[in-house]
C-alpha cells in the first residue's frame, strides 16, 4: 500500500462555500522526497480573512492560482505514477484535510483515487501510546510552517518514527 500524507490550507471551514487554497502531499517512504504541491484558485467569493492568513497568501495572490480542475487532475496523475495500487490517505487532521481533498476530487474530476476512507495520524498515535491526551507532534523533525509540503513531510516523519521506534506494523 502507498501511504500519502496530505496537508491542506483553506480560506474557510468547509469546501464548496469556501476554497482549498493549497495542499501538499508526500509519498511515505524512507526518503520522503516524492512530493506534490498544488495552489488552487478560489471557487467562491466567500473567505474568512483569519483562515486565509494561515496560508500566508493574500486574496489577490490566490486569485492568480491554478484552476482547481487542472490541479486535481495533476494530483490524480501524480498518485497514479507513484502508487502501485490504491493510495491510502493519511493526515494530521483527516476530518478537515479529507473533506477538502475528497470534495475537490469528486467535484472537479468525478472520482477520488483514495476511495471512501482516510486515516488520522493523531488518532493512530493516541492508540499506540494508549492515551487520548497525548500528541504526536513532538515526533516531527521538519518545522511546522503552514506550507503544506513542509507540514506533510513533518507528519510523515512522525509516522516513520512510529514504525521505527514504536513498532508500528505498516507496509509500503
From TrEMBL:
<keyword id="KW-0269">Exonuclease</keyword>
<dbReference type="GO" id="GO:0004527">
    <property type="term" value="F:exonuclease activity"/>
</dbReference>
<keyword id="KW-0378">Hydrolase</keyword>
<protein>
    <submittedName>
        <fullName>Exonuclease</fullName>
    </submittedName>
</protein>
<dbReference type="GO" id="GO:0003676">
    <property type="term" value="F:nucleic acid binding"/>
</dbReference>
<dbReference type="InterPro" id="IPR036397">
    <property type="entry name" value="RNaseH_sf"/>
</dbReference>
<dbReference type="InterPro" id="IPR012337">
    <property type="entry name" value="RNaseH-like_sf"/>
</dbReference>
<keyword id="KW-0540">Nuclease</keyword>
Amino acid at each position: 500500500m502507498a501511504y500519502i500524507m496530505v496537508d491542506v490550507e483553506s480560506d474557510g471551514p468547509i469546501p464548496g462555500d469556501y476554497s482549498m487554497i493549497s495542499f501538499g502531499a508526500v509519498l511515505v517512504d524512507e526518503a520522503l522526497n516524492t512530493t506534490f504541491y498544488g495552489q488552487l484558485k478560489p471557487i467562491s467569493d466567500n473567505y474568512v480573512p483569519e483562515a486565509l492568513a494561515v496560508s500566508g497568501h493574500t486574496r489577490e495572490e490566490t486569485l492568480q492560482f491554478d484552476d482547481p480542475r487542472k490541479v486535481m487532475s495533476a494530483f490524480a496523475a501524480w498518485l497514479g505514477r507513484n502508487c502501485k495500487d490504491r493510495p491510502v490517505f493519511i493526515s494530521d487532521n483527516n476530518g478537515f484535510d479529507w473533506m477538502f481533498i475528497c470534495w475537490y476530487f469528486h467535484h472537479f474530476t468525478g472520482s477520488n483515487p483514495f476511495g471512501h476512507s482516510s486515516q488520522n495520524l493523531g488518532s493512530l498515535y493516541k492508540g499506540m501510546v494508549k492515551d487520548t491526551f497525548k500528541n504526536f507532534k513532538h515526533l516531527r523533525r521538519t518545522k511546522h510552517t503552514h506550507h503544506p509540503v513542509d507540514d506533510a513531510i513533518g507528519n510523515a516523519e512522525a509516522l516513520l518514527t512510529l514504525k521505527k521506534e514504536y513498532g508500528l506494523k505498516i507496509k509500503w
